[in-house]
Amino acid sequence: MSEAPEGQPPSRRRIAFVVLFHSTCAILSTILSKSALNGIDAPVTLLAFQTTVQVVLLTAIGYFTKWITLSRPVSAWIALLPLTAARLVGILAKTYCLASVNASVYQIARGLLLPFTLMLSLLVLRPRPYYPPLSLGGCAMVMAGFGAGMASDYSQMLTSGKGVLLGVISSFTTAVESVVVKRFLGKSSEGMWQMVWMSNVMAVGFYMPLLVLSGELGTTAALFSSTATAEVSATTRQFLGTALLTGVAGFLLTIATFLQIEVTSPTTHMIVTAARGVAQSAIAVVTLGEPITANRAGSMALILSGSALYGWAKDRYAHSKKGSYLPVAQEAQESQLDTLNKEGR
């Protein structure tokens, strides 16, 4: 995928199309996944189906477009095991979190993603990234939004303690995933598409033992049982159909993420993310019948405003250093890669 030459930003029409495409895929992925989990509470089973669909599509399309190479030495696969493990743990935590909280409050539950990412980047990455004071102010707003939102939801028994805990764990594991991806982008000889494909292929192999460990193997077997009642069969068909759709949405989201990386600045990305969060919550309220409270709305506003402020401050600092149109820089690209695992942040 070609990038716009430096100093020549892409057209507004192209930016609008890419942003709309990316946001639609991200929202669809989250809402459909939550719908499937509402029917059958089987996060690992859902992920196994989703990832398998994505691998099939990536293999078929990537091979013919030369985005990927099917034959790689064993050493290349072994080298990507840490990346695969980080992405697998991250997406498992996100899906378990989604299963435990309302889709409309999902963004609040995972509100510590930005603070955790900043903290881990400062501790692990070298050279150490610089964060302008205003961006840290945005991060503080995000933390305040998370604290207020989760405290209110928990006190009103709208979200369980398990949901709050999974939100924190999910934020941390996604931050770890982001930092791991940053390190691999700097050192791995594999291209981005190749890394995504190889890590997904290996992830499929990990799902079988995970199905056993999670106790979902019986659930998975029951999905294909011929002795199920009509009601169970209907639920099964809905679950499998939704899993298929989310797999396709996840694949399209992968493409959309790469496209958005090429044409948007960090500020645009953060503002779009904020707008998408509002749209996702509204759609969840309408389609899934989830409740919305003033406290949830206020917390969401804090988190999204803080995220937008963070992106704007980082972008302004980058422009002050380079003084020209700047596509999403590598640091911002890497922080977006969690969306490759069907995250609608």
Question: What can you see in these coordinates?
Answer:
With 345 residues, the chain is mainly alpha-helical. It has one domain. 77% of the residues lie in helices and 0% in strands. It is built from 14 helices and no strands. Helix 1 packs parallel to helix 12. The radius of gyration is 20 Å and the shape is globular. The N terminus and C terminus are likely disordered.
Could you name the key traits of this structure?
single chain, 345 residues, mainly alpha, 14 helices, disordered N terminus, disordered C terminus
Summary, kept brief:
Helices cover 77% and strands 0% of the residues.
Walk me through the topology:
Elements: H1 12-39, H2 43-65, H3 74-79, H4 81-100, H5 106-109, H6 113-124, H7 133-155, H8 161-187, H9 192-214, H10 217-223, H11 230-263, H12 266-288, H13 294-322, H14 330-336
Helix pairs in contact: 1-11, 1-12, 2-9, 2-11, 4-8, 4-9, 6-8, 7-13, 8-14, 12-13
Portion of residues in beta strands equals under 5%
Bulk shape: globular
**Rg for CA atoms:** 20 Å
Largest sheet: none
Provide the succession of SSEs.
Answer: HHHHHHHHHHHHHH
Low confidence ranges? 1-6, 324-345
Terminal-residue CA separation? 24 Å
Structural class: mainly alpha
The mean pLDDT is: 77
**Whole-number total of structural domains:** 1
Question: Roughly what percent helix?
Answer: over 70%
State the helix count. 14
Give the total of beta strands.
0
